[in-house]
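help with this:

***
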Amino acid sequence: MSSTLRITVALATAGLAGTLQASEEVTQLDEVVVTATRTAQSVDETLAPVTVISREDIERSQATDVTELLKQVPGIQVNRSGGPGALPSVFVRGASSSQTLVLVDGQRLNSPTAATPEFQYLTPDQIEKIEIVRGPKSSLYGADAIGGVIQIFTRRGQGDPKLTVKAGAGSRNTSDIGVNYGGEVNGTRFNIGASLFETAGYDYTNDNYPANTGLNLDDDGFRDKSFTSQLSHTFETGAELGFSFIHNQGKTEFDGYTTKLFKKYPYNAYTEFESSTANIYAVVPVSESFMTRVDAGYTELESKQLGKNSAPEAPYTPNYYDTKRYSVVAQGDISWLDSQLLTLGVDYYKDEVDSSSLYFNPETNKQVDSRYNAAIFAQNQSDFGWSDLQVGLRRDKNESFGYSTTGNIAWGVDLPESFRIVASYGTAFRAPSFNDLYYPESGNPDIKPETSNNVELALKGRHAIGNWSVALFQNDIKDLIAWAPSAADPNIWVPSNVDEARIKGIEAVIQKRIDDWNIRASATVLDAKDTKRDKVLARRAEQFATLDVDRQFGLFSVGSSIRAQGHSYDDAENTTRLAGFVTVDVRGGYRVTKELLTELKVVNLFDKDYQTANGYRSEPKGAFLTLTWTPEL
């Protein structure tokens, strides 16, 4: 696709998320993605491996949790130390959660304190689509994009205004109620939605972990109240102005400390949370070949870990943290020949932390409660007809740890018989968190960022067997940040840059439609090693595969999601082995009337008892029924 058309599509999609207008000058593209290059492309044109989970996919899956959607994505493993509301670990091609960048409408969700992305409170009802890019993207997004980028887009209005009311109930006293209203009128798009999800949960910990024996036997519930809003307007000049806002708040119960003293004085641990993300943007077409976009954003997560002490002697003190991030991104896309698209941008964000654990720089003995990151980036995309070339470079300056420079180059070549080969190389880094640098009595201000070098070779095709791809990749990560007992005091753990890792793998993906059956399958073979000690990285399975099958016939729909995963190790020393498993989910739907849809989902159909983190049970079998009413207005 020529760069002029890319500019036209980018104007229509408002850069990160906008509206494709129907006109003679704009070509409607299937599955337009923006995360891979910060410009609009179709999935087939991207040089990076990309998966798109559309609104249709979300509704068909009947998912009640974002991790339900992600665990069926090629190359992704999801581990959980608990149920709904518990922080999930998402491994993209073997890279840890802290090495994977998660965005909501362009705003970073990775925690300034723990480095992990905290998206466990988001609900599928709030999401329009998810774009997952596998492979390093620090040259565009900066820190934490070693394994890839997951970008979540909130609901957008489209078409005639429509009201949707949903009510669901199921196992473990689960209920899910939501309402959504959105559409488009005379160039103005809007959407507003609210929902309440509650479940009594189940006992997340088990006796397989010795410290849990006889403890924490209660069920752990979760409650999440959510609100989403979006408004944008496209002017006759092609300019667009819009904003989005998403808010979640509630309570999640968890199994806390398991010492003998806590057995004597149980405290019923729980977390109260509030999470908000806001983004306002403006898109201005300066000319036919030059488009600008400016985004300003705000994110906040407030979390209070509490407990109901049964006695004053109970050894528990409530704690809290409140993190805020302010950001501004300005980007310009310039079509400087018919086959060249240059993207230039500046990126600034500032983190602020308020916590019951005060952060001090041990060298200056001064409190540290904020830091900024400023960056410039550039990317050029070339379309030669028979091949595409993408080159990018970024320079970051962080107030805490200094400068980082990252880059990437990718080349895709069209071959005969609908084959395409793509070769790429990219560098990335993971930023030390506030905890790494300044945690009380433990922080190490000399910690350096983790760095990585990734190479990949992929072959793609569109043939009778379906749309498919096979990718070989290798990611070498240096200066891994590891926490270990201090030599001076073994009771105090401190971080240092001690480890190195090499993650090699092969990933195969295929999608095929046979008659009325839609089939999607993937398989990944992974070799993730600590190269210094020749140990498998914790909680990375060597093989995992997914299969999704769906069919619509008449008023009925049926589907199933199957996940298979080989064994893994829970610890760095590879002494605790977690068995492999296969889980099967099934779903079905029946349209009672034009306005009323009823759906039924059964998760873990064969009630497989398995764990992805030692001592924590995964979800047992459960059934969930949902009614969705969409009246004509």
User: Anything to note?
Assistant: Residues 1-29 have pLDDT under 50 and may be disordered. The CA atoms of residues 181 and 510 lie 35 Å apart. The longest helix spans residues 3-13.
